[in-house]
C-alpha cells in the first residue's frame, strides 16, 4: 500500500500516539511517591491503586492489541473456533476470584512482589522459585512480541510496514518511546494510559458493530457469506458452528486458557497493585464487561469475510486494519488504528515490568546480590525491562510473525505448569517441593513434546503448528483434537502427586524453615489483613 493514500490516517495515528506517550512520561508525577527507587513503587505503583484505576489497568493488561487483531483473524480463517476466547474470559473471573484475593493478602502481609516470591516462602525452595521465575519470563517474552504484531499490522495497512531496517524504523521508534516512559514511570505509566486506550477501543468497536453491518447489508448477509466461505474450503474444522472434531479442543482450550491467563506474571502484577481486597472483588465482578467487548471484536472477522477483505500478503493479522481502512472514513480509520497501536502499549509495558520484577527478585537478589537494597532492586528491574523490550523487538524483526504466534501458544502451555505451585499452593501445602519440581519437569517436557508433534500444513509448519493435539497420535480411533496444555497440566499433577507421596514416604525434608507454616494463607479474618484494609482506606 502507498503511504501517500493514507496521509490523514497517518497524521491522526501519530498525533494520538504521541499524546499518549507524553502521558506515559507525565505519569511519573501522577500520584507521585516520595521515592520511586523501590519495586513496590516502580513495579507495583505503590500497591495503592483503587477500583477505577485497577479496572482499566487489568482490563488493558488482558485485552491487548494482539487480541484486537488476532481473535478476528482466527474467526476469519477458522470460524467458530475463534470464539473460544469469549467463554474463557467469562469463566476465568469466578476461577480466579478466590485465588487472587488470597494471593493479594499473602503478598501484602509478607511483602511479596512476584508469584515466585510466594513459592519461595511457601515451600522454602529457591530452586522451585527459580523454575517459576524462569517459566514466567519465558512465557511472557513472546507475549510482549505479539503486541508489536498489532502495531505492525496497522503500519502495513497505512503503507509504512514492510521488510528491512528502514521500513521497521517506525516500529522501533514506537518501542523506544515505550521503553523510555516505562523506565521513568514504572507501572504508573500503563495505569494512566489505560484510560485512553480503553475509551478508544470501546468507541471504535461500538461504531464498528453498528456502522459496518449497516454498510454490508446486515448481520444475515455477514453470517451468510461467512458460511459460504467455510463451506467452500476443504478444511474439516472450520465453519460458523463447531463440529464433533473440534468441540473437545474448544472446551479444553477455553478452560486451559482461563487457568493460564491469571498465572501470567503481568496479570498478577496488575492485581498486586490494588490497594485492598475489596478493589479486587469489585474488579472481578466488573471485568466480565470486557468479555462482551471481546465477543463484538471477534465478529469483525466475519465482517471482513462479508466485505471481501484480503490480508496483506499472507499476514492474516492485517485483516481488521484493512477492514477499517476500507469501511471507515479516513479520519475515523486513523482513530481506529491509534486504538490498536495504543492498545499495544499498555500490556507491553506491564509485561516488561512483570518480567523484570521476576528477574530482579528471584534471580538477581536470590543468586547474585542477596543484600541488594531497594534502590538497587529498582535499578536492576528498570534495566531488565529495557532488555526484555529489546528481545521483543528482535522476535519481530528476526522471526517469522506466524512463528511468533505459535510461540505465544507455547507460552500458554508453559505458564500452566506453574499452577500447582502458585494457585494450588495458596490453599494447601500438601504438595512436597520435590513433587512440584518433578511435576514441573514432566509437564514442561510433555507439553513441549506434544506441541512438537502438532503440524499445520496450511502454514507449512511440520512442528509447533498450533495447540490442537490429535488424539489419534495417542492411539485413539478419532479425528478429535485436544488442547496440548490441558494434557500437559494433567501429566504435571499426576507426577506431582506421585512424587509427593514417594518423598513423604521416604521422609525427605519438605523445605519448611519456619517462614512457610501450614496456615500461610492470610485469610480475610487475619488481623494483619484487616490492618492493611484499614490503612488503605484512610
Structure summary:
The protein has 23 helices and two strands.
What would you note in describing this structure?
With 538 residues, the chain is an all-alpha fold. 69% of the residues lie in helices and 1% in strands. It is built from 23 helices and 2 strands. The chain has helices spanning 7-26, 39-42, 51-62, 65-78, 85-109, 115-123, 126-157, 169-185, 188-216, 219-231, 247-261, 265-272, 277-286, 289-298, 300-306, 319-327, 330-368, 374-398, 401-416, 419-422, 433-452, 484-505, 527-536, and strands spanning 468-470, 481-483. It has a two-stranded antiparallel ribbon with strand order 1-2. It is globular and about 70 Å long. The model is unreliable at 513-525 and 529-538 (pLDDT under 50).
Question: Helices, strands, pairings?
Answer:
Elements: H1 7-26, H2 39-42, H3 51-62, H4 65-78, H5 85-109, H6 115-123, H7 126-157, H8 169-185, H9 188-216, H10 219-231, H11 247-261, H12 265-272, H13 277-286, H14 289-298, H15 300-306, H16 319-327, H17 330-368, H18 374-398, H19 401-416, H20 419-422, H21 433-452, E1 468-470, E2 481-483, H22 484-505, H23 527-536
Antiparallel strand pairs: 1-2
Amino acid at each position: 500500500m502507498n503511504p501517500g493514500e493514507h496521509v490523514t490516517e497517518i497524521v491522526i495515528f501519530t498525533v494520538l500516539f504521541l499524546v499518549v506517550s507524553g502521558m506515559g512520561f507525565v505519569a511519573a508525577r501522577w500520584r507521585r511517591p516520595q521515592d520511586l527507587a523501590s519495586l513496590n513503587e516502580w513495579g507495583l505503583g505503590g500497591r495503592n491503586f483503587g477500583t477505577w484505576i485497577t479496572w482499566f489497568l487489568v482490563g488493558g493488561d488482558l485485552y491487548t492489541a494482539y487480541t484486537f487483531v488476532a481473535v478476528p483473524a482466527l474467526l476469519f480463517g477458522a470460524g467458530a473456533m475463534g470464539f473460544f476466547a469469549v467463554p474463557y474470559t467469562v469463566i476465568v473471573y469466578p476461577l480466579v476470584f478466590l485465588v487472587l484475593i488470597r494471593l493479594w493478602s499473602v503478598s501484602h502481609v509478607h511483602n511479596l512482589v512476584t508469584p515466585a516470591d510466594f513459592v519461595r516462602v511457601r515451600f522454602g525452595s529457591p530452586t522451585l522459585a527459580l523454575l517459576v521465575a524462569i517459566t514466567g519470563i519465558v512465557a511472557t517474552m513472546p507475549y510482549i512480541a505479539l503486541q508489536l504484531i498489532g502495531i505492525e499490522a496497522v503500519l502495513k495497512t497505512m503503507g509504512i510496514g514492510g521488510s528491512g531496517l528502514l521500513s521497521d524504523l517506525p516500529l522501533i521508534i514506537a518501542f523506544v518511546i515505550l521503553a523510555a516512559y516505562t523506565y521513568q514511570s514504572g507501572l504508573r505509566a500503563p495505569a494512566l494510559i489505560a484510560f485512553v486506550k480503553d475509551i478508544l477501543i470501546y468507541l471504535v468497536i461500538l461504531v464498528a458493530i453498528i456502522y459496518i453491518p449497516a454498510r454490508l447489508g446486515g448481520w444475515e448477509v455477514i453470517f451468510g457469506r461467512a458460511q459460504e466461505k467455510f463451506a467452500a474450503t476443504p478444511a474439516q474444522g472450520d465453519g460458523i458452528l463447531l463440529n464433533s472434531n473440534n468441540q473437545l479442543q474448544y472446551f479444553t482450550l477455553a478452560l486451559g486458557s482461563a487457568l493460564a491467563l491469571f498465572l501470567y506474571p503481568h496479570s498478577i502484577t496488575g492485581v498486586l497493585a490494588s490497594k485492598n481486597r475489596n478493589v479486587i472483588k469489585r474488579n472481578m465482578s466488573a471485568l466480565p464487561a470486557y468479555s462482551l467487548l471481546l465477543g463484538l471484536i471477534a465478529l469483525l472477522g466475519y465482517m471482513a469475510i462479508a466485505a471481501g477483505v484480503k490480508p496483506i500478503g499472507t499476514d492474516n493479522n492485517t485483516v481488521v486494519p484493512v477492514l477499517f481502512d476500507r469501511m471507515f472514513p479516513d479520519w475515523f480509520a486513523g482513530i481506529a488504528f491509534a486504538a490498536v497501536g495504543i492498545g499495544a502499549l499498555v500490556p507491553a509495558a506491564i509485561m516488561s515490568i512483570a518480567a523484570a520484577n521476576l528477574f530482579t527478585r528471584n534471580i538477581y537478589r536470590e543468586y547474585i546480590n542477596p543484600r541488594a537494597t531497594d534502590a538497587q532492586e529498582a535499578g536492576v528491574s528498570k534495566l531488565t525491562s529495557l532488555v526484555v523490550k529489546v528481545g521483543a523487538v528482535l522476535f519481530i524483526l528476526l522471526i517469522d510473525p506466524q512463528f511468533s504466534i505459535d510461540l505465544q501458544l507455547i507460552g500458554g502451555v508453559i505458564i500452566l505448569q506453574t499452577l500447582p505451585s502458585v494457585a494450588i499452593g495458596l490453599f494447601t501445602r500438601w504438595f512436597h517441593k520435590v513433587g512440584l519440581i518433578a511435576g514441573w519437569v514432566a509437564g514442561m517436557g510433555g507439553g513441549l513434546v506434544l506441541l512438537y508433534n502438532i503440524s499445520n500444513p496450511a502454514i507449512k509448519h511440520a512442528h509447533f503448528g498450533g495447540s490442537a493435539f490429535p488424539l489419534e497420535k495417542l492411539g485413539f480411533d478419532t479425528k478429535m483434537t485436544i488442547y496440548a496444555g490441558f494434557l500437559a497440566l494433567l501429566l504435571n499433577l499426576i507426577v506431582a502427586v506421585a512424587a509427593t507421596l514417594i518423598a513423604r514416604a521416604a521422609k525427605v525434608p519438605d523445605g519448611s524453615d519456619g517462614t512457610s507454616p501450614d496456615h500461610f494463607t492470610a485469610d480475610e479474618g487475619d488481623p494483619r489483613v484487616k490492618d492493611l484494609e484499614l490503612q488503605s482506606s484512610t
